[in-house]
Amino acid sequence: QTLDRKLNDSFQLVSERLEQVYKGLGEMQTLATGVGDLKKVLSNVKTRGVLGEIQLGAILEQMLAPDQYATNVATKKGSQANVEYAVRLPGNDGIPVWLPIDAKFPLDAYEQVLNAYDAADALQVEAAVKQLKTRVKTFARDVQTKYIDPPATTDFAILFIPVEGLYDELVRLESETGERLPDSPTRRVGGA
Length: 192
Prior knowledge:
Strand content: 5-15%
Order of helices and strands: HHEEEHHEH
Strand order of the largest sheet: 1-2-3-4
Number of helices: 5
Structural class: alpha+beta
Radius of gyration: 25 Å
Shape: elongated
C-alpha cells in the first residue's frame, strides 16, 4: 500500500509538471506567433515608415506645445512634397521659419549589418555597413532636396531614426571611421 501510494503521488506530481510544461509551450507558441506577426508588420516598408512617424509625433507632442509644430508641411515653395513634421520657429514679420523633421527606418539594411556581425564575416560586415551608410546618406539627400528652402526653412533638417539600436550603430560608425554622416546622429534631439 505504501509503495502504491508513493507511486501514485509520484505519477500525480509528474502529471502536474507535464501539464505546466504544456501550458508553457502553449504560451511560447502564442508569443512566437505574435513575434511572427510583428516581423510581418516590420517587413512592409510603408508600415515601418508609419511606425517611425508615430514615434516622432509622440515625442514632439510630449516636448512641444501644439502651436510649436505642424504635420505634413509643404516647406519648399513649388514642391508637392510634404515633410511629416516641422517645428515652427519665429521668423521675420510673424512668418514662421520651419525646421523639417523626417522619420526614416532602414530596417532591412540594419538587419543585414546585424546578421553580418552574427556571422563574424569581416567582408560581409564591411559590405553591410557600406550599404547602411549609403541608405542613410540617400535619405539625408532626399530630405535636403525635398524640404530645405531657406529662408522659409532652416538651412538644415533633422533625420529621425526611430530605433535606438540603429541610432547607436550610426553613432558607432561615425566615431570609428571619423566620417561624418549627413545630418549627423550626434545632433540628437529628443530621443533616437
